Prior knowledge:
Blueprint: H1 2-29, E1 36-40, E2 43-46, H2 47-64, H3 70-75, H4 78-99, H5 105-113, E3 119-120, E4 123-124, H6 126-135, H7 140-161, H8 168-179, E5 181-189, H9 202-211, E6 221-230, H10 242-251, E7 257-258, E8 261-270, H11 277-295, H12 300-307, H13 311-314, E9 319-324, H14 330-338, E10 348-350, E11 353-363, E12 366-367, H15 370-404, H16 407-413, E13 419-420, H17 435-442, E14 453-454, E15 458-468, H18 479-507, H19 512-518, E16 524-525, E17 529-530, H20 542-548, E18 562-564, E19 567-577, H21 581-614, E20 617-619
Antiparallel strand pairs: 1-2, 1-20, 3-4, 5-16, 5-17, 5-19, 6-13, 6-15, 7-12, 8-9, 8-11, 10-11, 14-15, 18-19
Helix pairs in contact: 1-15, 2-4, 4-7, 8-21, 10-15, 15-16
Amino acid sequence: xxxxxxxxxxxxxxxxxxxxxxxxxVGSFRARRASILxxxxxxxxxxxxFASAYEQVVSSYRARFKEFNQDWIKRxxxxxxxxxxxxxxxxxxxxxxxxxxWVSEDEIREVIKHYPTFQKNGQFDPGLYQAVLxxxxxxxxxxxxxxxxxxxLSQLRNTVQGLAHVSEQEAYEAYNWLKQRINLEFVAFRPKxxxxxxxxxxxxxxxxxxxxxxxxxxxxxxxxxxxxxNKRKFTPKIEPTNEEVEEYYRLNQQDFYQPKTxxxxxxxFRVPPDASPQRIQDAxxxxxxxxEKAKGMKDFSKLAKKYSEDKANAVKGGDLGWFGRGTxxxxxxxxxxxxxxxxxxxxxxxxxxxxxxxVEDVKEAYIKPLSxxxxxxxxxxxxxxxxxxxxxxxxxxxxxxxxxxxxxxxxNKLKVSVEETDFFSNKRYPKGIHYSLISKLLSLxxxxxxxxxxxxxxxFLAQVIEEKSPSIPSFLEVKKKVKEDYIKEKSKExxxxxxxxxxxxxxxxEEFSELAKAHKxxxxxxxxxGINQNIPNIGYEPTIQRAIFSLGPSRPYLDKVAEFxxxxxxxxxxxxxxxxxxxxxKEKETFIKELLSVRQANFFNIWLxxxxxxxxxxxxxxx
Length: 623
């Protein structure tokens, strides 16, 4: 009797909350109600703060990556990351307050006035400011408080990072380490070359199977009914109004901002990175002669076709087309963006050589007019509304299915198409179901109904109708696979043993070339490569890469066999190309800035970690 009464009560409760599902969505229904998530030195971090920050981060990811879904949130551990960032922010601001760092209201106002998002025709617009904040669910007071925190945080970061320093000698040593190149001689022991030596008996295979039963087990399998709600089915019914399009445009003007672009031609005189001073001087002289001709000649393209060593663009008269900042190398861009239409630069030196640049046209930065983006906005609104409609239907279906304890019944009631699969596992699954959903579906128990799952095109709901527990097949069922695995494993062991025997004999003083002959191996060379590059003909393995670059004439071999992608290598130092002081001088200024930037970031992170160790941080709810 009690069981039936309890069941009846649950159904009544679900019938009441069905409205919540329809209008507010599953996320709202599940919202955590605890008000305080953590304390930092006694100062609370409220759930409301976390929810706001988390929503912003998720929105940012969604805007940048169309395929963003719940799987990403788990893999990136976003909830924990956001909470940790709030803890760090609180701790930094507390420290800044102790140090007496502060920001005046005038400074905050000045920063807000210069936000492009809050400007119309280059001027701060109070109405736009209010509208943008409202869209993002901020009051001016909340936004200005957060901005104050950002500015104080920036002050403190600059103060701490200002303590970092890089000397010219340190920069040279780091530059040399990163830019040096080495050449290796090597022999390879490949497991496939040892396969013919492995002839297993039936007894061997049975013993191997008994020891590796779990490797051959059949994973959990399930059969489901599912509903795939695609937002596309709603788009024909949606037609955004002019008012909606105009409001979207007004509140999202930053999305239509077009940075400055230029169209330019160039004439290149190539100078290799390892060029001698004489070659550099010759190239500069030739470039200067052509520059004089360019300044007195109207048709720049003829000179480009005749003299430019950028052959791909020379045939087009040196035309590079339109480009913005961040597209080409910095010295070239800096020069191009400083010129007016029709102007020709002086010689510009880049890592490619000497350039003469002519700017053909300039498009200043601007915000695209509504007429130009109206169709795009209407499409975006259509997609947003379609997803909202799909979400409402998904929530309604989930609530109804929970009441009926059947997804199929609920789908029939709401006249939604429902599908059924055969048994599948995480190794083999139906084509119509995206792989990102499989782990969630396999975590469901028999009879359980999934909450609406986010997909690229809408929402997915499923109910497990049958399941098969993991099982171990008989030896005969997997005999072929067992034999393949046995041969693969044993041939790899033989390859490794042979490689280790080779390196042990090297240590005893035997010659590399003689040992290679004895093993019927032909030594090969990698050719020169850098520390952050793939080893030619071998691969890339960070744990081995640094050790390789410590090799030299006095220590030509690694102490152990190097394994890359299942193949075993004996690597021998052959030659090194070091960097000259002259090469360093060319890039010294830029490199020191880059190295200092890295050191400052590391310095700040170390300081922050030490600050966290000393702080009293209490997390009340784990994410």
